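Weekly modeling sync, notes
Attendees: AB, CL, MP (scribe)

Item 1: holo prediction request
CL wants a bound-state model with adenosine-5'-triphosphate before deciding which constructs to order. AB pointed out that an apo prediction alone won't tell us much about the pocket. Agreed to run with the ligand included and paste results into these notes for async review.

Input as submitted:
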Amino acid sequence: MIRLEQVSHQYANGTLALQNLNLEFGGQHFTALIGPSGAGKSTLMRVLNGLVRPSNGKVWLENTEITKASDAVVRLERRKIGMVFQQFNLIRRLTALENVLIGRLGFMGTLRSSFKAYSRADRELAMRMLERVGMADQAWQRADTLSGGQQQRVGIARALAQQPKLILADEPISALDPKSSEQVMELLLEIQQQDSIAVLVNLHHLDAVRDYAKRVVGLRAGQVVFDGRADQLDDDAARALYYGENDTAETASDALNLERPVVSMPISVPGSSAVITNQFTINSYTHDPAGLSNSRSKKEWK
Amino acid sequence: MKPFEIHRITRAQQLDAYCELLGQKFFGHTVLGNAALLGVSGLMLPGAFQKEKFRIIFKESMTSIQTVNIEAPAKVKRQRLLSTFMWLGIAALMVWAFFGTEISLAKLLQGVGESWKLLFGTSDKPNSGFIPPNFSRFPEYLEQILLTVKMAMWGTALAIVPAIGLSILGAKNTSPHPVVYFITRRVLDLLRAVPEFVLALVFVVAVGLGPFPGILALAVYTTGILAKLFSEGIETVDAGQIEAVRAAGGNAFQAFTHGVFPQVLPHVASMTLYRFESNVRAAQVLGLVGAGGIGFFLNEALRGFDFPAAGAIISLIIVSVFFVDFLSSKIRERLT
Ligand SMILES: Nc1ncnc2c1ncn2[C@@H]1O[C@H](COP(=O)(O)OP(=O)(O)OP(=O)(O)O)[C@@H](O)[C@H]1O
Ligand SMILES: [Mg+2]
C-alpha cells in the first residue's frame, strides 16, 4: 500500500538520514524496523506519513505520489496512516475519549472541530476503540492521570479511530515496563491479524522482534542492510546490523563484555552517607539492544 | 547496567562533595567577582565562613583516604568568569543609575515630619489630613469603585482574543514565518511601550470622557502584555502533542486548537487573571485623565485639598484591590 522509490533525505543541517531506499510496506504484514540509534528509523516513519518530505525520490501511498502533492492532499492521505509514539503524545489535559477523537479530526470541518462538535458516530467509534484496547473504564479520565501502558493503549485507540490502512509505531514500548510492553505488542499483533491493518513497528528489543514480526527491515546509516523474514535474523546478522560489517565477531563481543568507560557525577545528600551516582555509558547504549550479551536471558524484556 | 547506583561513601568523601557544593554555590566566583558580590550584598560572609570551617574538617579527615580532584573543568571556570562579569556589569549599572536620581537618606529623614502633617493634619487644623478619613459620600465612592472594577473586567476581556491571535504569530514554534514573528514582536513592544494614560487621552479625544475610553486604553495595553505572556507559554508546549494531531490528519488550525491550546489553557487563564488584578489598579490611574471611575474622584479630592475625602477613597481602593487579588489568586490556584 505504500512504496518508496529511490528515497533519500538530507536534513537542513546536512545530516544524510536516508539514502536510496526502495521499500514497500503493506500486504497486511507485521514488519519490524530495526537498526542502531541514528540509523534513520524515525525519519523513515515521518517520510512514510508525509510529515517529512524527502529531498529525493518518490513515495507512493496507494495510487497517490505524496512527495510532490500539495499540503492539503498529503494531509488527507495521511489519515490512512495511524501513528503511535514512544512518548504516547496524548494531549495531557484532555480525557482519554477526547484523545481518541483526535483521530477523527482529519475527517471533520475545522469549524466543527474547534467547538469539539464531534458527531455521534465519531463518539461511538471512539468509545468502541477504547473498548477494543481495554480502556473503556478510563474513557472520562484525564490522559495525564493514566499509567504509561494505559496511555499507550489510548494512543493505539487514537490511531485506530482513523480507521487506517497502516499503523506506524515509533518505539511504542521503549518507555514501558515489561508487562505493559507485552500488552501493547499483543494488541498491535491482534490489530494486524484481525483488522488486516499493516503494522510497521520500530523496535529496539530483538526478542520482541522475533516474537511478533513476520518481516524485518534493518537500517544502518540510512541504508537498508537487512530485509527478510524474522527467522532469518540470526545473531550474526544482528551483530552486523548493530556493530557494522567490518567489526569481527571478536571485537563486537569485546565491546559487550568489557567494562565501558563511565562518566559519573556524584551528588551528595547532606546529612546522609549515600551518594547517588548518575552514570552514562559513553558508548550510548545503556541497555543491550541486540540481546547479544551472554549475561542476559533472552526473554528478560518481557 | 543500572543507570543509577547508590553506594555508601566515607564521611570524608561526603564532606568533600559538600565542600564542592558550597564552593559552587557561595564561592564559585573569582576574588574579583566575590568582591563585586560583597559590594552588592553582605550576604556572602556567612558562606565564606562556613566554607572555611568545612575545609578544616575536611583536611583533618583526609589523612586516611586518597585525594580526589576537585578542580573545576575549564568550561565551568569560563562560565564562572562570565557570571562574574555579569555581576560586575550589574553593579556598574546600579552605580550609574545612582547619579541624577538625587537619592539622599538625610533629605528623607529631615522631610518625614512634613508628610506626617499631610497624613494626619496639623494640630491647629484638625481633620485636614488623610486620617481620619471622611466617609460621608461612601455610596458614591462604592459605585465608582465598582465602575473601576467593571472597566478592568472589560479592558481585560476585550484583550483576550486579539492577544491569542497575536501570540500565535509571535511564538517561535507557531509563527508561520520568521518575518511575521519579528514584526509581531515589534508590534507587541509598541503596544506595551505607550503608557496607559496616554492611550486613555487618545481615546478620550476620540469617544469623549467617561469609562469607555478607559476600557479601550486598558484593552490595547493589555493586548500587548497578554500576547507576549501567551506566546511565551506557547513556546514551552510539548511538540509531540502537536505532532500527534498533525499525524492524525489534523490541519494547522486544528493543531493549534487541539494540540497547543489545551496545553496553554491554564497559563492563559492564570495570566489573564493576573492582568485583571493589575488592570484594577491601572483603571484607578486612568480616572486621573478623565477616563471615568474612582480615579476621577480621587483626582478631584486631591485637587480641592479635601484630604479626608481622599483618605476615604484611598482606603476603599486598598480594600477593593485586596479583595480582587484575593479572589483572583484563589481562582488561579485551582487552575491546572
Ligand atoms: N530534525 C532534524 N534535523 C536534523 N537532523 C536530524 C533531525 N532529526 C533527525 N536527525 C538526524 O538524522 C539521523 C537519523 O535520525 P533518526 O531520528 O531518524 O534516527 P533513529 O534511527 O530513529 O534513531 P533512534 O533509534 O535513536 O530513535 C540522525 O543522525 C539524527 O541526528
Ligand atoms: Mg527514533
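Recorded for review: The CA atoms of residues 216 and 228 of chain A lie 6 Å apart.
Action items: CL to compare against the apo run; MP to circulate these notes.
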